[in-house]
Structure formats: C-alpha cells, structure tokens
Design a protein that fits this description.
By secondary structure, the chain is α+β, with helices and mostly antiparallel strands. Helices cover 32% and strands 23% of the residues. The chain has 15 helices and 19 strands. The strands form three sheets. An eight-stranded mixed beta sheet has the order 9-13-14-19-18-17-16-15. The chain has a five-stranded mixed beta barrel with strand order 4-5-6-8-7. Strands 10-12-11 form a three-stranded antiparallel beta sheet, with no helix packed on it. Strand 1 and strand 2 form a beta hairpin. Helix 5 crosses helix 15. The N terminus is likely disordered. Bound molecules: 4-amino-1,4-dioxobutan-2-aminium adenosine-5'-monophosphate (4AD) and magnesium ion. 4-amino-1,4-dioxobutan-2-aminium adenosine-5'-monophosphate binds next to strand 14, strand 18, strand 19 and helix 15.
Length: 496
C-alpha cells in the first residue's frame, strides 16, 4: 500500500485550481483512473478529481441521480452523485447505460452500501451519447454467445474487462518470469518457409494472383513469380528459430502470434493464437518440466496477488471454486508419468468400468481430450505431465529414446482444459534427426540450416510452447477459447 501511495504521489501533480491530474513526464495531462481512486481513495477524501467512464447504469430519483462509472482500469464502478444544482442535471440524469461521461467532482465518504467512497459531481460532460435504438449492451445480463457477435463492444462488459485485464497480467508476468530466470526475449519470424510441426496445417503467404491461378486447370505454380520465390507460410511455432537463438544466447523465449490452418471447430482451438516458447541450452526433459511447472506457478501467484477483484467476479459468475483451485495448484507438485503409464491407467479405468470413453484407448494412438480429462479431472485431480510418447504421432524434432520407439516429449495437461503445454528435449544427433525428417516427408534441403545447428557445436537443449489463450481459459474459468482473445479467428471467421 505504501509503495502504491508513493507511486500515486509521484504521478500526481496538484494543479492550482485544486484538481488532481496524472502528470506524465512529457507534460501531458490525463485524468485520474478509477483504479487509483479505489486504492488511494481515503487519502483523497475532500479532494477534487477529474475522471471519465462509461455508465454501467444511470439511476434517478426525484432530485438526485447516480451514475455508476467504469473506465476499464479496474473491475468496480465508482458512484457519481449528481444533485439538481448541476447545470445540466436534466440532461445527465436522462442518459442511458453505455453513455460516456467526464466528471469533475469531490471525493467523499459514501453513505450508501457497497462502496466506501463516491464522487460528488461539480461538473459533468456527456462525452459520448448512446442512441436508444440498437445499443446492444443493456443492463440485463447478456449471453456470452451474443457478446461473441459484437467483439468490438464486449470489452465494456464486466466479464470481458476481467478477462482482458487477466490476459494483460499473464503476458506481463511471463516477461517478468523469464527475465528473472535469465531468458532473453527474442522475436522469431511470422513468415516462414518451414513447417515446424510437420503437420501441414499452414496458411500460405503469397502475392500471386489467386484469381488467375483458380482457372480450374491443374498447373504447377512457378514460384519465381511469387514474392519470396518459394512457398512461404504463416508460422505455426517459433521453435526452430528459437533453437537457433538458444545455440548462441543460451536461454531465450519467443512470445508471439502463431497460425494453424487446422479445421477444428472446438472450444479449445483458434487459427490465430499466441504462444510462449522458451528454449534453453543444457536443459534436459526434467529441467524443461521444472521450468514449465515453476512458470505456471509464478503466473498463478502473480494474478492471485494482482487481480483479486477480477478473479472474485469470474468465480462468482463462471466457476465457483476458481480461486481455491488456483491456490491448490500453486502449492501442489505436478504429477509426472510416461505415456505408457497413462495408457495403463486409462485401460484399467475402462476395465473396472469407472469410465466409458468414446474413443478407444490403445497404445500407439494419441490421447483424446476425454482421456486427458480423465487423467487430470478424475484420476489425479490436478496438472499432469505426460512424457515419452511414441514417435509415430509426435514432431520430428523430438529426441529419440534408446528404445528407438518413444521420444523425449512432454505435454502438460491441466484440469478442465486438457493440453496447455507441449514441449520436448530436442534431437541433437544429426543422423537421427535426418531420418525423422524423412519419415515426416520434410525436405532436408529446406531445413539444412536447422541441421547445421547439430553439426556446428551442438549441445542438448529443450523447450516448450504454452498456448496463451488456453492459460487464460484456465485462470478465468471461461469455457470457450473465443472468449479470451479480443478478436478470435477460426475456420470460416475472420470478422472485425
Ligand atoms: O503442442 P504444440 O503444437 O507445440 C509446438 O508448437 C511446439 N513447437 C512448441 C515448442 O516446443 N516450442 O503447441 C503448443 C501449445 C499447445 O499445448 C496448446 O496450448 C497451444 O500451443 N495450441 C493451441 N492453442 C489454441 N489453438 C490452437 N489451434 C492450438 N494449437 C496449439
Ligand atoms: Mg501438442
């Protein structure tokens, strides 16, 4: 609290007419944020402030009106009391929810329930009126499905304010964590000629005139006429470039948008999502799991401290045990087991008729989300690392185990979500890597630079990718990934 107050004093400049303003170093005046009013409100009693906000509600009794304003800086609303002495009392008190107001007024102790302070308005300006027809965010609760159709307006709701502030916190804490752990932040390319996952789920990047290509005739495209003179794509992962950077800087991470043209219409898939990808020289799979576990706990600690109001709101409306389950995870040891052990648990559960799966459980096939859910939600009741999957359905770059059958892969599965993190120790033997590439039908020539990393001073190294949106789902209790990114992209939809 003390630190916050000092910060406020540093940021505030008392202008001669008694108003508080935030004074930025470049001399630009901006208004007091409602967040600061709540954290430092008692110190501001009887002081004058200027603020703005969108009205969550406008209530009028005979000669007084109450505006509940929110400016996006925090979860709660500040109550602005307008009495009939206000020059434009009739205009202000007749406005609708959604109207944007700016207010000059005095901070006073509140007589009412539910808030400790409020603003006694001296001057209120209607900044942005709301026309009565067509404004879709009325006071009554609106469904998430409906709000998904108006992503340009939903940031004004309590739910999406909470979600996006948490998204900010998770992103910010990511940089803090990796900086603390001596990882350097790198930016890897968005446009690439490589298919990192070897799964062929790539969006093409081209300047060729597709209308001319689509004349129905099958022709070979002459890439000499294309921008990069070769096939180019949007990246599915920054990993391969991150590996190259790690082979010079030791510990690096990339954090950027990634793109997948997989035709998945699920509540956990987007075609454009953000991924955090650390890569570390000298790390084996256990070091990699330790890093992932510490990272996740760091993020949870950070939001429990920084975003209690957001979490309380989301718990109340979406997931009752949200805070307790986050607290439990931060103090638990994540289970670690091999794919083979996981299959045994699932088979045993089926045999004992504890559960019925839609998809068959069989060694050699990938775990379906219902299997993952059984492990996290029912069997272990917490996060689970599954390691050492069969090579047949894992990416070419994962280190082959001595059994020649499984790879040093790790997936972190978490309750309610399934796979949050996918990672591995990387194959550092050039011959073995080449063989895996051929199996995956990848052209070694395109990846020669990647093979060179094994030829020229290689060292064991590992890394992982965490889907940012899946993490936001986990910490917000949102059950659809389209509700944790501002403008979601998925098959058939690139609106807004
Ligand atoms: O498991 P994935 O495919 O791993 C990689 O891309 C590695 N190259 C990462 C690395 O080792 N550097 O993806 C990593 C994570 C998944 O665990 C999941 O959380 C998320 O990215 N993810 C998606 N999130 C939303 N929509 C999709 N379509 C996603 N595909 C993967
Ligand atoms: Mg994966």
């Amino acid at each position: 609290m003390r630190g916050k107050n000092n910060q406020l004093k540093r940021d505030l400049c008392y202008s001669f007419d008694g108003f508080f303003w935030f004074f930025l170093s470049k001399g630009i005046f901006i208004m007091t944020l409602i967040k600061s009013l709540f954290s430092d409100g008692q110190e501001l009693i009887n002081k004058e402030v200027s603020l703005f906000g969108w009205a969550r509600s406008v209530r009028r009794s005979k000669n007084v009106a109450f505006l509940a304003l929110n400016d996006g800086s925090t979860q709660g609303t500040i109550q602005v009391v307008c009495d009939e002495n206000l020059a434009n009392f009739e205009e202000v008190s007749g406005k609708l929810a959604g109207t944007c107001f700016s207010v000059d007024g005095v901070v006073v102790k509140s007589m009412g329930k539910g808030q400790s302070i409020e603003i006694q308005a001296k001057k209120v300006v209607v900044e942005g009126d709301v026309s009565s027809e067509g404004y879709p965010l009325q006071k009554k609760a609106t469904s998430l499905e409906f709000l998904r159709e108006i992503p340009h307006l939903r940031a004004r709701t309590n739910t999406f304010g909470a979600v996006f502030r948490l998204r900010h916190s998770i992103s910010f804490a990511t940089h803090q964590f990796f900086h603390q752990e001596n990882f350097y932040y790198m930016n890897t390319p968005i446009v690439t000629a490589s298919d990192c996952e070897g799964a062929g789920e790539l969006f093409r990047v081209t300047t060729l005139d597709l209308d001319k290509l689509a004349d129905g005739e099958k022709k070979k495209v002459d890439y000499n006429f294309d921008f990069y003179k070769k096939p180019a794509y949007l990246t599915v992962s920054g990993q391969l470039n991150a590996e190259a950077m790690a082979m010079g800087l030791g510990r690096v991470y990339t954090f950027g948008p990634t793109f997948r043209a997989e035709n998945s219409h699920t509540s956990r898939h987007l075609s454009e999502f953000w991924m955090v990808e650390p890569e570390a020289a000298g790390f084996d799979l256990n070091d990699n799991m330790d890093l992932a576990e510490n990272y996740l706990k760091y993020l949870i600690n950070f939001i429990l401290k920084e975003n209690p109001e957001e979490l309380a709101f989301l718990a109340q409306h979406y997931q009752k045990d949200l805070v307790e389950s986050l607290e439990k995870v931060r103090s638990s040891n994540f289970v670690r087991l091999t794919y083979t052990e996981a299959i045994s648990i699932l088979e045993e559960a089926m045999k004992n008729k504890k559960v019925k799966f839609e998809y068959k459980v069989a060694y050699g096939t990938d775990l379906q989300s219902e299997h993952e859910r059984y492990l996290t939600d029912v069997h272990f009741k917490g996060p689970v690392f599954v390691t050492d999957y069969p090579k047949s359905f894992k990416a070419f770059y994962m280190k082959l185990n001595d059994d020649n059958e499984t790879v040093r892969a790790m997936d972190l599965l978490i309750p309610g979500i399934g796979e949050l993190i996918g990672g591995s120790q990387r194959e550092d033997n050039e011959e073995k890597l080449l063989a895996r590439m051929k199996d995956a039908h990848l052209d070694p020539e395109t990846y020669d630079w990647y093979l060179q990393l094994r030829r020229f001073g290689s060292i064991k190294h590992s890394g992982f990718g965490m889907g940012l949106e899946r993490m936001i789902m986990y910490v917000t209790g949102m059950s659809n990934i389209r509700d944790v990114i501002a403008f979601p992209r998925f098959p058939g939809s690139a609106e807004f």
